[in-house]
Every structure is written in C-alpha cells, then in structure tokens.
C-alpha cells in the first residue's frame, strides 16, 4: 500500500459513517467456533502476521494494517476464533470515483483454517454487508497470474453470484520498480444481482 492509497480510500469512506457489524457465527458444521466481525485497531498486528505468513501477499507496513482496521472497518472483515483472535481477513475500500465499487485489497487465512472455504465465506459476507449498507454492487480486485488460490476464489465468487466478470491487465510488470513482479490482473465482478446476494442470508 502506498502513502497515497489510504488518502484516496478515505475520500470514499468519509461519505459514510463507520458501521462495524455485529459479530455473526459461521456454520458450526464447516467452521466450528468461528465468527465474522469488523476489524478493530487492536487486530492490526494479527492481520500483519497473517499477511506475512501467507507468503503470497505483498507485505505492507504494520502501521498500514493498523490504519486499515481503524479507518476501513466498514469495508473490511475478519474471522475470529474462540479466543477472539483473527484467523482470516479481507481488507477493502470503496473506490472514490465509483463508491458502489468495492476494491478488495488483501485476503488472508491462517494456515490451520485453509481448505474449508473460509475465504469464500468472508467474501460473501463482505459483499452482502457492503451491498446492504453502502449500495456496493461491483467487486474489483487485482490478482497476479501465478496466484492460483485467489484466481479460483474470485472466479468462483462470480459464478456463485451469477455475476459477469471481466479481466484485464491493470498494472504491467514494467510498472513496478523492482524486477520480477508479475502483472496485476484486474477482476471486475458485477453488477452483482441483488437476489443472488440476498439468498446468502
């Protein structure tokens, strides 16, 4: 995350009050003891560690995760275990030029919780909440071609919600200062049909 990005994201979020969700328990059959919640500033260090341990995400500064948890709680989500510690998260923001579009920034799940669909459950819940509260009907994210898990996550989200999806290179490899960075492919999913979101309740 660059210094300019929090300012751009804040321009959109200033239009809305911060609206933390009430914690909601996930299906105990699939996710025993887990609940979904808004991130809090005290979660910032845990989110940084989850991103670091993912070995797939670009690791931002610890300070940036603290800011995300404070300023963008209404467009982000965490999964908590019985100890109330985050075991997964999605960070995102409403795009300033298109406030009905949620840009998903990072998705991470603790190694011990992977393989059960927790990332998909968090993404569904975040899309539903931002749709209900902010009128979001388009999801965007960028994924590198070699990130198989993220490509599968967003492709399946589009299919599950019967939403159109387009893909195009947003930032090419030569746009990055360091050598060896993969191009970032923009997924644009939407408009997301309201009935498709509602049936997830």
From TrEMBL:
SUPFAM superfamilies recorded: Acyl-CoA N-acyltransferases (Nat)
Keyword Acyltransferase applies: yes
UniProt keyword terms in alphabetical order: Acyltransferase, Transferase
Keyword Lipid biosynthesis among UniProt keywords: no
Pathway(s): Amine and polyamine biosynthesis; ectoine biosynthesis; L-ectoine from L-aspartate 4-semialdehyde: step 2/3
Cited InterPro entries: Acyl_CoA_acyltransferase, Ectoine_EctA, GNAT_dom
GO biological process: ectoine biosynthetic process
EC code(s) of this entry: 2.3.1.178
GO molecular function, one term: diaminobutyrate acetyltransferase activity
Gene3D superfamilies in UniProt: 3.40.630.30
Region ranges (Disordered): 1-38
Domain N-acetyltransferase, residue spans: 34-177
NCBIfam families (UniProt xref): ectoine_EctA
Family to which this protein belongs: Belongs to the acetyltransferase family. EctA subfamily.
Entry protein name: L-2,4-diaminobutyric acid acetyltransferase
Organism encoding this protein: Streptomyces hainanensis
